[in-house]
Amino acid sequence: QVQLVESGGGLVKPGGSLRLSCAASGFTFSDYYMSWIRQAPGKGLEWVSYISSSSSYTNYADSVKGRFTISRDNAKNSLYLQMNSLRAEDTAVYYCARVSLTGGLGFDYWGQGTLVTVSS
Amino acid sequence: QSVLTQPPSASGTPGQRVTISCSGSSSNIGSNTVNWYQQLPGTAPKLLIYSNNQRPSGVPDRFSGSKSGTSASLAISGLQSEDEADYYCAAWDDSLNGFWVFGGGTKLTVL
What we know:
The complex is a heterodimer. Chain A contains no helices and eleven strands. Chain A is mainly β. In chain A, the strands form two sheets. In chain A, strands 2, 4, 5, 6, 9, 10 and 11 form a seven-stranded mixed sheet that branches. In chain A, a hairpin with a 4-residue loop joins strand 7 and strand 8 (78-83). Chain B is built from no helices and nine strands. Chain B starts with 8 loop residues before the first strand and ends with a strand. Classes of the chains: A mainly beta, B mainly beta. Chains A and B meet through strand 5 and strand 10 of A and strand 3, strand 7 and strand 8 of B.
C-alpha cells in the first residue's frame, strides 16, 4: 500500500536551517509529481512547493521562495525540502503528498506530517 | 487570507444535509477542477472529492461535489457524527507558472 513517511522536523532557531525528508513506498515514485504542504498550529492548509516526476519543474509559494528548495531522489524513493533562513511563521506541520495522475491534480496520498518549530 | 473563500464553520444534526461553499476566481476554480479534503481531528488530510465531483474508492456516496463558474460546493447528506471534521477545497491556479491554492477550511460540527 502507498506510504509516505516524513522525518527531519524539530526545533530550530530563527535564521536556522532544516532538511525534511519523505520516504515513499508502495508505488512507482518516479512516475509522480510530489508536493509539500504545511499547516501552522490551529490554521489551515498552505501549499509550499511541488516538483515534477523527473525534477524538471519546481515551484514555490511566495512565502518560501528563495529560502526553501525542493528536491527528490528517484533511486531512493525520497522527497526532500531544504529550509533555510527559517522564520517563526514557518512553524507548522509539514506534509508530503503525492499528486494524483488521474484525479484532477488532487493530492491523493499524504504522509502523517512532521512538526517544524522555529523559536529562540 | 486564503485565495479560495470558505465559510469558517458549518453545522447540522445527524441525518441532515449540509453544504459547504468555496469561492475562487477565473485563474483557479474558473479554469481548473476542484478537490475537497477532509481532515479529522489530529490526522492528516484525506482526499474526499476530486475533479469537482468524483469520489475516490472508499468514500461514501453521502459526499458529493459540484462546480459552477468560479464557485464549488461540497454536500454531505445523511450527516453522521464521524463527519465532524475540517473540510478544505483546493484547486490549481494558472497564475505565475502555476501553483495550488487552498480554502481557509470549514469546521463542520455535528450537533
